[in-house]
Write a structure and sequence with these properties.
The protein is of the alpha+beta class. About 35% of the residues lie in helices and about 20% in strands.
């Protein structure tokens, strides 16, 4: 009897091992096979100099609308017109809202759906006190060690000028797009896009424009970031998480600190916040995350390939591992971030009011309503008032990875970056493209910037830079993408 049980167990283990091995090795690569493209010639020095010249123009955006920095945007507009004369002589230029730019390159086929490239002009400020930590002045545009240094080289003047470089070359080559191409550049992306991208989207909608696809900034070409993957991966954002800030407030009678009640306003609010942080919304490997891992699995090595190819068995283990990292955890759930707490103004006075702000980045599948319901259930205190921020936004729809536009995008990436694999992903930040949900069939969020683990802190941080070699790749990518999609048939 014992032997029979042991033999049964052994057989079960063998069958399980065979199933796991079969699932692992049966998964073929999902990478699009493309013919090598002839790389367009790029004057590296001239292109790098043009990008470097845009960095000293301090286009720092502000929440208050047109401000003292508004003249800087006009300087940038003049600089772009000077540096890209063929583009400006061929494309129609409109200035909307607070210095937002809309360029139209009319296509030869009025029946073809237009497409749009997006890249914003504004940059974030330098964190006070960090200036001396920069290897080059953050607004110098200095070129050294094979890099262009400064705020905006990565986010997002690098994308903007690379797009213009590509269009300038196409115009010089006599290229006439089949589809109308829009070049869209807001001046307030870093503070909402409400005065730039949103008015442009509304204008296009009023004109009856329906875009086949939009490509905006987003995920990047990662190298060495994903454990078990030896190849660089170009991550394409197929959806964007929603944005939900909720303001919590609690009013109690103020009093003297010598006679505190059992529950103070600060203590009650702190307990509520602690419960929210300790009880996040549930995580799961579904949706875009599942598509991402299905695409990566055949390209992985070792145990990582085995685990990702058999999520039916190893899913809980993989999920627990992913939840340990801030960036990977954000791919799996609606995240909870305690960002503002205010209460009290004197050490011997019990404050009568405690306030807090909690920011949620909402996973597609969750909603602002479900997040608010989660808050109410978790804090379980009707005395705490909950008010949503008026600028909150639902998650965007998930763009299909089966569309012709996605195949064209994959092809352009693989041709401009022959060493990379292309992987669908979830953009966990916010971009101007979210304002185009009502006017576009597909929206992609991808910046053709190479990034290693040590580079990720440069985003909105210290020592932002772009290598000249990578900048040339960016130009070639946009050039190839437009040829792939707007080539006359």
């Amino acid at each position: 009897m014992v032997k029979r049980v042991l033999w049964t167990l052994l057989l079960a283990v063998v069958v399980l091992a065979v199933v796991i091995a079969g699932n692992t090795w049966r998964r073929a690569s999902l990478q699009l096979q493309v013919s090598p493209a002839q790389q367009v010639e790029v004057d590296e020095k001239a292109a790098a100099d043009r990008l470097a010249g845009a960095i000293p123009i301090r286009t720092v955006s502000g929440m208050e609308g047109l401000q003292s920095g508004g003249e800087e945007f006009k300087k940038l507009h003049a600089y772009l017109a000077q540096q890209f004369p063929k583009l400006h002589a061929t494309l129609k230029k409109e200035v909307l809202g607070d210095n937002a730019l809309l360029y139209t390159w009319t296509g030869s086929d009025p029946s073809a759906k237009p497409i749009a490239l997006m890249a914003h002009q504004d940059v974030v400020p330098i964190a006070p006190g960090t200036e001396k930590a920069w290897a080059a002045d953050p607004f110098s545009g200095q070129i050294k060690d094979g890099f262009v240094w400064g705020r905006g080289t990565w986010d997002n003047k690098g994308n903007l000028l690379a797009q213009m470089e590509a269009i300038e070359m196409l115009v010089a080559q006599g290229f006439q797009p089949r589809q109308t191409i829009y070049l869209i550049s807001g001046a307030d992306e870093e503070v909402s896009g409400l005065r730039g991208a949103k008015p442009i989207a509304e204008l296009l909608k009023s004109r009856g424009v329906r875009l086949e696809w939009v490509l905006d900034e987003g995920l990047v070409v990662t190298d060495g970031v994903l454990p078990g993957l030896n190849k660089p991966a170009a991550l394409i954002g197929m959806a964007e998480k929603g944005y939900g800030t909720f303001f919590l407030s609690l009013d109690q009678a103020p009093g003297h600190s010598s006679m505190p009640p059992n529950k103070t306003a600060i203590g009650t609010m702190s307990a509520a916040l602690a419960r929210l942080e300790a009880n996040p919304m549930p995580a799961s490997i579904t949706g875009v995350a599942a598509d991402m891992f299905a695409t990566i699995a055949p390209e992985m090595n070792g145990l990582n390939r085995v685990a990702l190819s058999n999520l039916w068995l190893f899913g809980p283990l993989v999920q627990r591992q992913l939840e340990q990292g801030a960036s990977t955890n954000a791919m799996l759930r609606t995240t909870t971030a305690l960002t503002i707490v205010r209460a009290g103004n004197k050490d011997n006075v019990l404050p009568g009011r405690a306030e807090a702000a909690v920011n949620f980045r909402i996973l597609p599948g969750d909603t602002l309503a479900s997040v608010e319901a989660h808050i109410r259930k978790t804090i379980a205190n009707d005395a705490i008032t909950i008010k949503p921020y008026p600028g909150n936004a639902e998650p965007t729809p998930v763009t299909s990875s089966e569309s012709a536009s996605y195949r064209a995008l994959q092809a352009a990436v693989r041709q401009a970056f022959p060493d990379v694999i292309v992987v669908p992903g979830l953009y966990i930040a916010a971009s101007d493209s979210r304002h185009f949900v009502d006017v576009a069939d597909s929206i992609y969020r991808f910046s053709p910037v190479r990034a290693r683990p040590e580079d990720l802190s440069r985003f909105h941080g210290t020592n932002e830079r772009i290598s000249i070699a990578n900048y040339v790749e960016m130009i070639r990518f946009y050039h190839q993408l437009l040829r792939n999609t707007a080539q006359p048939q």
